[in-house]
From TrEMBL:
It holds the Pfam family Glyco_hydro_28. InterPro entries: Glyco_hydro_28 (IPR000743), PbH1 (IPR006626). It comes from Cucurbita argyrosperma subsp. sororia. The keyword Metal-binding does not apply. It comes from the Eukaryota. Belongs to the glycosyl hydrolase 28 family. GO terms for biological process: carbohydrate metabolic process; cell wall organization. Its main location: secreted. This is Exopolygalacturonase. GO terms for molecular function: polygalacturonase activity. It is found in: Secreted, Cell wall. The active site is at H308.
Amino acid sequence: MTTTTNLSLFQTLLLVLACQCCAEVAAVFDHVKVAANPIDGIVSTANQQHRPPAPPLPLGIGTLANSRGRVAINSTKAAVDLKGNGNGNAVFDVKKYGAKANGKSDDAQAFMTTWIAACRNTTGPAKFLIPKGTFLVGPVVFAGPCQSRPITIEIQGTVKATTDISEYSSPDWISIEGITGLILTGSGVFDGQGASAWPYNDCKTNNNCQILPNSIKFTRLNHSIVDGLTSINSKGFHTSVFRCYNFTATNMNIIAPGNSPNTDGMHLSTSKLVTISSSTIGTGDDCVSIGHSCEKITVTNVTCGPGHGISIGSLGRYKTEKSVLDVLVQNCTIFNATNGVRIKTWADTISGSAVGIIFDNIVMRKVKNPIIIDQTYGTKKKKASKWKISNVHFKNIRGTSTTNVAVLLECSELFPCEGVELRDINLSYGGASLKNTTIVSSCLNAKIRTFGVQNPPACVV
């Protein structure tokens, strides 16, 4: 069969359905072009902390994901009205496309049918609407590029993940990818129903473990906004941002128990111009983790706790990782957490750097390690990290530490930390076990400059 290189994605999807995954269709997919992303030159197979690379995604505007892999939706369901309501501001309600909203039937296929209609709308902006109700949904992929710009996903109801982890062939429950001008908003809830899956989080000891899926993964999004997202009890990460450009997340409410494993609130990697603001995050892992190959990241007015604090890293685990540049964490409160603000790199790994990191105006309340640089993360090896940390500023950080070491800077012997500024640090002991405890600073291979108040006293280097 002879194919051309300019098929639309919708035509390609119909071809897949007609040929039922024949060999000729694979050749078509090889020639379909995807819209360029400003950071597509940054390539990484290790796109998530704690996780191996995700399998490649097939191209198309919508797929279901099951234990056999991602498959195209049923062809009889794909024949949908692409005109919406015809008023130039089309609304596509999942219930009108077959969603039962009874909390028992899997509404994944209805969601995908609705997505195809919204994504291919040609009358102007489109809204993918999840109305009030409870929707049980298995793994799905909302893929672009879309003709509708902007395209809005509005959630008013509760979307619950299916609990059988054997259904998740990829490490994501809801994947949103390849879109310019996405808006995700609404007062509803994404419920990962993670409690039944957390006991299976044994990848540190079991090489054949089942990787628990992220609740929502954003991939290759340009100029996109997430406003008002509520995510509870994810199986893995609540949200992951990968290869995104100009991405804003605000007014989020992310919740999981403090003992839930690897439930990071928002994990970033290979992304540029990302802002996280005005949000409340309490999980069993990092509230925000900024991974490799990130640049120009801003985290402001975030309340974090419980959890592992706000972290840069971990960095240096995989060979494809690149540097982290220009990160600002400002006006945040961290409470009942194991860490406050942290930079963590693996020992004895690839070379890289973290440069231009600012932690400013941070309040700590009962935090175990308020200020920490850890360049021996993830290993008991005594070999030095090859990741170079420089131009780091800890400014106006105050509150209580539950341990006597409130400032811990453990840098690499091979590449000592340079240009570390401690300005107006005012921490006191707030633990329950020891009374009248004097807190201290501990430093190794760190070149420090101090300004203003220093409590505990800064290390003498």
